[in-house]
Amino acid sequence: MNTKAVKEINCELVVVGGGPAGMAAAVAAYEDGLRDILILERDDNLGGILRQCIHNGFGLHRFGEELTGPEYAYRYEKMVRDYGIPFMTDTMVTGISKDRVVTAQNTKEGIFKIRAGAVILAMGCRERPKGALNIAGHRPAGIYTAGTAQKFVNMKGYMPGREVVILGSGDIGLIMARRMTLEGAKVKAVCELMPYSGGLARNIEQCLKDFDIPLMLSHTVVEIHGKDRLTGVTIGKVDENRRPIPETFEYIPCDTLLLSCGLIPENELTKDAGISLDRVTNGAIVDGDRETEIEGVFACGNVLHVHDLVDYVSEEASIAGHAAVRFIRHETSKTVNVQVKADGQIRYTVPQKLTEVAPTRVYFRVADVYRDKKVVVAVGDKVLYEKKKQKLAPGEMETVELTDKMIAEAAELGGVLEFKLV
Amino acid sequence: MKKRELTCIVCPRGCTLVCELDDGGKLISVSGNLCPRGKKYADDECTNPMRVVTSTVRCEDGAVVSCKTSTSIPKSLVLEAMKVINNTKAPATVKIGDVIIKNVLGTGADVIATSNK
After folding, report:
1. Residues 66 to 105 of A: which have CB under 8 A from any B CB?
2. A120-148: string of b/e by CB count within 10 Å (b at 16+)?
3. What's the CA gap between B101 and B57, in Å, rounded?
4. Higher model confidence: residue B66 or residue B40?
5. B42 and B71, same structural domain?
6. Number of domains chain A is built from
7. Taking CB atoms and an 8 Å limit, are A60 and B12 in contact across chains?
8. Residue A232, domain extent
């Protein structure tokens, strides 16, 4: 192989992904005075998935007003353009090495390599596909992930069908139930395997209840009917072990089945780089700076863990952006090694470890719906923090602010900080 | 006196609002809201529910561009507003914030573009 033909350039900060996380990370780094930045985006414009999320509800935390997805994305795109932060669209990153050499390609440059001072991973996530769901029956046309249908309707102006059943009550599924209804389709049911919805309460209210769309909890699709085009689905109630109960099976004629069954962080590049992933989040294991196992490689946004609000994605991305600049300038002071452990009722925390004595916001999610519980942060028997919560649900991310004092104390008392519900 | 439970849709927190209404359906008190916007929402929801409509509008070149109502409109007019939006053609070139339909259905809200095209 003639390696000389591959162009190599140097860049202080390479950001992989030009969605909300990548743009916010780059903007944060720019605002710290860094100028040698390059954002690499595989789509034809910046903005990521927000471009197709035309509904509103974005930006209440970040901008104090209610924006639609494209408007939120444009706020950041405008900052990137106004600052003159370099970015390449239609550019696919195919590899990241341990010594931070990023391999990318596009039709203009061919394959090229970038020696990066620091790398920020912001590749986002993708939907769990049908193949991962194991539903019996043929594989006719008319079955889409909710996000694919969203792209068809909102970006391309095509309606995927007229009579719809939605499996999974994640936010995209709920949003698409309303969207399809507004465009004249009949959404017959939203089936959710779990006894609770994974979506936000406000979306159940404004997307389902507003249009009298039934939310069938503890229900799943057990069979797909139709050979060339979907003609219907059989749905059924599931028992406590999530096994369908045959007596409850019911046939619903429909021409479209949308799947909203979870999001998976898109970590192929991360894995190839040899970075360990957290088994629960499916994202990299990071410290408070969002730095992964590889020095100078950071991760933020949905590639790190799936967020429910883009506002939190932006916030996390700025943390990574600022930290990357400190890394490039050799300003980091990693002096402690504190593991953050979740008790199981708390499913996971991000970050999973703390290496600096500095105020840190820890995000976490719970495993089930809990009422009147206390969130406790403790080292051994010593409680450092506790807060009562009326209601906790898996669909809603929670946060705890750790002070530098708590982290110093945790480091002194054995280095394991436990997050639990009591 | 009647009680009604609502889920606030103003922000992602989704507070459960417990509303007390008089016999005429007028709101007497709200609890469960973590901010004043929840009270306003409950007030509207019990008397005249309001919604922002977000959709897409077809452009002269056949492509679509995303749009929304500039303020919330009565919920009862949402499907009507969708008809108006779907019977409108926007210019082929649109900038974010451009007014596409003025004062839709006399609600005082404009339909405006939410992305560039």
Report:
1. 66, 68, 70-71, 74
2. bbbbbbebbebeebebebeebebbbbbbb
3. 10
4. B66
5. no
6. 3
7. yes
8. 129-261
CB atoms within 10 A of CB A349: 24
Tell me which chain A residues have a C-beta less than 8 angstroms from the C-beta of B58: 157
Please tell me whether residues A224 and A283 are part of one structural domain. Answer: no
Given pLDDT bands bounded at 50, 70 and 90, which one contains residue A129? confident
Q: Does B112 touch chain A (CB under 8 A)?
A: no
Give B 69-88 residues with CB within 8 A of chain A: 75, 78-79, 82, 86
Say yes or no to pLDDT of A1 above 80: no
Residue A246, Cβ neighbours under 10 Å: how many?
Answer: 9
Amino acid at site A350: V
Q: Is residue A1 part of a domain?
A: no
- For residues A138 and A254, state if they share a domain: yes
B98 is in which domain, residue-wise? 54-113
- Own/partner pairs, A100-107, CB within 8 angstroms, 24+ separation: A100/A14, A100/A294, A100/A296, A100/A297, A102/A14, A102/A16, A102/A40, A104/A40
The Cα-based distances of A5 to A1, A2, A109, A115, A170 in angstroms read 9, 6, 11, 16, 47
Residue A90 Cα, gap to closest chain B Cα (Å): 18
Looking at the structure, tell me whether residues A178 and A288 fall in a common domain.
no
B116 touches chain A (CB under 8 A): yes
Q: Residue A137: pLDDT band by 50, 70, 90 thresholds?
A: confident
pLDDT digits (tens, 9 = 90+) for A373-416: 999 999 988 999 999 998 898 888 999 999 999 999 999 998 99
